Automatic annotation (TrEMBL):
Pfam family, one: UCH
E.C. number(s) listed in UniProt: 3.4.19.12
InterPro entries: Papain-like_cys_pep_sf, Peptidase_C19_UCH, Ub_carboxyl-term_hydrolase, USP, USP_CS
Similarity section: Belongs to the peptidase C19 family. USP2 subfamily.
Alphabetized GO MF terms: cysteine-type deubiquitinase activity; metal ion binding
Reactions mediated catalytically: Thiol-dependent hydrolysis of ester, thioester, amide, peptide and isopeptide bonds formed by the C-terminal Gly of ubiquitin (a 76-residue protein attached to proteins as an intracellular targeting signal)
Gene3D superfamilies from the UniProt entry: Cysteine proteinases (3.90.70.10)
A GO biological-process term: rhythmic process
Name of the protein: Ubiquitin carboxyl-terminal hydrolase
Listed GO CC annotations: perinuclear region of cytoplasm
Enzyme class, broadest EC rank: hydrolase
Keywords: Biological rhythms, Cytoplasm, Hydrolase, Metal-binding, Protease, Thiol protease, Ubl conjugation pathway, Zinc
Record localization: Cytoplasm, Perinuclear region
Length: 388
């Protein structure tokens, strides 16, 4: 449905879950005696104020479709439910971090303003992201006019936000190549080099990928470390049974042979050789974004294979160190890559309850409905217990 312009009424439960804020429940019982909304400037003040209104409490607010903007709305809802990013905006911490390279009216300012509106709105009306959209289009006119890819938009947005609050304004010069160390050490060194250049709150989405290329002729192995914002997973194909996210992760990290036209040039042999290539995840990020790779052979078709992914305790120990992740948001895509429609399933960071965000419409859902073959971009958060 590329043109969904109609405005829906926001439907949220009469009594929004407020387990994380027990004091709010008491306030709500007395809501009959409350008069008009009072504008308060503090975060807690906003939360109390919005909770007095039983509709649209705590981020459960829809976003108007401005004409083919469901891809944007879907990603915005996923980010709005990214706990630490939301708080970063609600606490106005981003203002302190805005660097001099950023102009007065920035995409981040608009983004934060939108998040603040979504988390403080006392109206049941859907919010219009038009100012945010205008700002985005100033930087990227390509995100206008027709249906876009949600993942591309996510990466563009995070990269843009990061640049505005990157604490490094003058990037150190010098090469970042040629470390003659063991891989482990080299990985760490490359990561600290990365942080010397890129240091912002948004880096919580960034991990580090190691790619190694081994020459089949002389055995020379060259390794490269690259930061990643998301991992695009190939869909494991099985003759029977269901495909799991772990199958896709294993396929992603499986050794691959580069031969024929794909033969790379070996650094030592100085000629093109048959090589084996392998990806390893050197460093997992706090927020792990995984996505289902669209079929490469036919760009216009998408794989509708159902990939079973865990909601809790995505255990990635076989790929790296002690890591466990919980799912908190999914950007769904239905239809084909040429058209189709995006929605988001998000777990409210305050209540832990799941909701469907379909442009202007917000509806509660059961966590058992979250997994579907429409799941396209998965947002996982590192569990704090495994941080040590
Ligand atoms: Zn070689």
């Amino acid at each position: 449905m590329p043109t969904m312009r109609q405005t829906y009424t926001v439907t949220v439960p009469e009594d929004p879950p407020a387990a994380a804020f027990p004091f709010i429940k008491q306030e709500m019982r007395r809501k009959g005696s409350m008069s008009g909304s009072v504008l308060v400037s503090t975060f807690v003040g906003l939360l109390i104020n919005q909770a007095k209104n039983s509709k649209s409490a705590q981020g459960l607010v829809g976003l108007k479709n401005l004409g083919n903007t469901c891809f944007m709305n879907s990603i915005l809802q996923c980010l709005s439910n990214t706990h630490s990013l939301r708080d970063y905006c609600l606490h106005n911490s981003h203002r302190r971090d805005l660097n001099n390279n950023s102009r007065t009216n920035t995409a981040l300012m608009e983004f934060a303003k939108l998040i603040q509106t979504m988390w403080s709105s006392t109206s049941s009306e859907a919010v219009s992201p038009s100012e945010f959209k205008t700002q985005i289009q100033r930087y990227a006119p390509r995100f206008v006019g027709y249906q876009q890819d949600a993942q591309e938009f996510l990466r563009f947005l995070l990269d843009g936000l990061h640049n505005e609050v990157n604490r490094v304004t003058v990037r150190p010069r010098g090469t970042v190549e040629d470390f003659d160390h063991l891989d482990e050490e080299k990985g760490k060194k490359m990561w600290s080099k990365y942080l010397e250049r890129e240091d912002s709150k948004i880096v919580l989405f960034v991990g580090q990928l190691k790619s190694s290329l081994t020459c089949s002729h002389c055995g020379f192995c060259s390794t490269v470390f690259d930061p990643f914002w998301d991992l695009s997973l190939p869909i494991a194909k099985k003759g029977y049974g269901e495909v799991s996210l772990m199958d896709c992760m294993r396929l992603f990290t499986k050794e691959d042979v580069l031969d024929g036209d794909e033969k790379p040039t070996c650094y030592r042999c100085k000629t093109r050789r048959r090589c084996t290539k392998k990806f390893t995840i050197q460093k997992f990020p706090k927020i792990l974004v995984l996505l289902k790779r669209f079929s490469e052979a036919r760009r216009t078709s998408k794989l509708s294979t159902f990939v079973n992914f865990p909601m809790k305790d995505l255990d990635l120990r076989e790929f790296s160190s002690d890591n466990s992740y919980n799912l908190y948001a999914v950007s769904n895509h239905s239809g084909t890559t040429m058209g189709g429609h995006y929605t988001a399933y998000c777990r409210n960071p305050n209540s832990g309850e799941w909701y469907t965000f379909n442009d202007s419409r917000v509806t509660p859902m059961s966590s058992s409905q979250v997994r579907s073959s429409d799941a396209y971009v998965l947002f996982y958060e590192l569990t704090s217990s495994s941080r040590m």
